[in-house]
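pinned: reference chain
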Amino acid sequence: MSRAPMWRAIVALGVIAASLFFALTQSARLGLDLRGGTQIVLETKDSPVTKADPESTQRALEVLRQRIDALGVSEPSLYRSGERRIFVELPGVQDPREAAEVIGRTAQLTVHPVRGMTDKQDEAKGAKGAKGKPAKDGSRILADPDQKGAFLKLGPTALTGEGVKDAEAVLDQQTMSGWMVDLTFRGQAGKDWARITGAAACAPQGAPERRVAIVLDGKILSAPGVNADVACEVGVSGGSTQITGGFGREEARELAALVKGGALPVPVEVVEQRTVGPTLGADAIAASAQAAIIGLALTGLFILVVYRLLGALATIALALYALISYAALVALGATLTLPGLAGFVLVIGMAVDANVLVFERAREEYLGVRALKSAPAASAYLDKPLRTGFNKTWSAVVDSNVTTLLAAGLLFFFATGPVKGFGVTLSIGVLVSMVSALVITRVLADFAIRRRFVRGRPGLTGITSTGRVRTWLAHRKIRLVHHRRRWLGLSALLIVVAVAGIGLRGLDFGVEFTGGRLVEYSTSRPVDVDAARAAVTDAGFPRAVVQESGNGDISVRTGELSNDQQHTIREALAKEGGEVTVERDELIGPSLGEELRRNALIALGIAVAAQLIYLSVRFRWTFAAAAVTAMVHDVLLVVGLFAWLGKSVDSVFLAALLTVVGYSVNDTVVVFDRVREGRHREPAADLETTANKAVIQTLPRTVNTGMGALFILAALAVLGGDSLADFSVALIAGVVIGMASTVFTAVPIAVQLEGSHPAPPVRPGRGEDSGARSPLERRGGARDSGAVV
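pinned: its structure tokens
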């Protein structure tokens, strides 16, 4: 074995060994949409005294962390995103009402001297601090928690929650009066507490002025009177006190968590909230695993039939690709989300592309050798066509994968929530596919081709036959590019139909783009959608859109809807359907919805610009413009299809759309790479002839690669459930449209543009690939009537 295959074998073994280690020793980190729980996205707002900036947002995050830790949630996760966003992930929390209330409250704890008692309706009317609003010095009038209908006049703030060192819920063991909160003060706060209680002790027994009010968020929690044994002007020393108020255990624990956490430095607003039931995530994992196994099996069987021994080796490489991708995901600590899981399955199909490129090119090289030599003599050259196939496809593989990586990167930076995970897994999958195809498959193929048994039976390799598609094309002598005006007219007609669908039917934007709330409920017994709609209307939500989703679940979509109102709808449905479980709950604030719409347009715009710039560098601007035009054509057709079908356009659809962008350009780049190679080899040849030859040469690859991807996507569409059905439909449409647009849109546009703006003449012998002419190319082609596939 030569030195080059040796280093490839070492690299392949090292990568596989490391992948096995990570896969067997570490587990994937599942997102909340797969393991169940609640994610809340908070945005900090400016307060009258503090600006919402990264520093104040970080301080708010630390306060929230203390509160959530006190709530006892298992493995919570909090992190800051950008300057003013805080992500809170609460695994296992299915009812977000309590969590949202606790983490969202400002918890402004203040202590006030009591100046007297009043009847708010009479004496307090128009007075400073009336109706609970504090005056500039902090004085206010609030309801007395101990006497119904009475109100207390509170003096200026004497102490704030920042002076609280610790707060603990304890049971009153002496009087057995229930639960209370034990407060411990720090430093100067303890002295301030002694001063305020000392001043109150100077008032007569029973007087309102002998009480001290403890206020949280504009409500008096407790207004205890100072004991008779406390000396005037001395107060309660020791730096501690108790808050009483007839609390239950959970109420006392929640209050202690709020007080201990302290006041948020700036107010926060819930801009996004997602809740996923545990069964939905488990079902998605099982369905995606089945789709991956079935899709991989069908893809492997397909390439095994088409490429025989090399197809079998490529199937082994695909299985190792899945292992390496999973290990990379685990090693990087990336979070696996539902769209990410779909992306993981999808790139298995896309990983076939590089293998097919190599094998089809090796077929051409071998058939060219056999045209000059006898079949037995050609069998001695099996390794050379394969080596040439790997070498000549390197440029096309890199160019096509870079375009997909551009789309994946845009998903990561502009998407939100679980869709970011799709960008991560897509990026990892694309990079690993190159290692799988160009290193692992090559090592296996080199080893197999060198065996005497294989050399004596060259038909086993799969590269000695022309293939059905190539044979049919050779016999037909089709001139696809010659009818380019006809194809461009058809493309224009399809665009008109798509735009008409967008204009007439409109796009059904999901809550992520419009703002609002979408809740999916499952019931223990079947509920007719009309009965569910009537129940929701009777509950006070006549404008809610009630529909039946997959598996008989009921989805309710509204504008603004609080957690309490969502619970009301749940109770209304329970009367019709028995036990009700929330399978999915998405709340998007209007400001975030507008931001997501803007980001979606920016992402698509940058995708177009980035592809245009990259392709202009790698090819001429005419080819870049043709590829980008075909890409926009594909995007419009997929969007138009969703408009006509009335399917929802959400962030998952955006992920599918950007994947279509990458796939569309990927396919076009492969053809353009052949056109570039043909022009370097025969610069005097007519461009139409060169382009037509490139299309014919790459069409088998296009069909075989598309079939590999469609097997995976069809499995996802059938087994992936309701949550992935639309995603799969968009990608299936994108793959089919992308394959067609390469031949019938991109290439004709490129030929038209080159005719109007011809390139400078290229001298023979210059440029990449100019000297790499196969015998087939020198002889103009070869026929093989013994093709099987």
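why pinned: Confidence is low (pLDDT under 50) at residues 122-131, 765-789. The longest strand covers residues 109-118.
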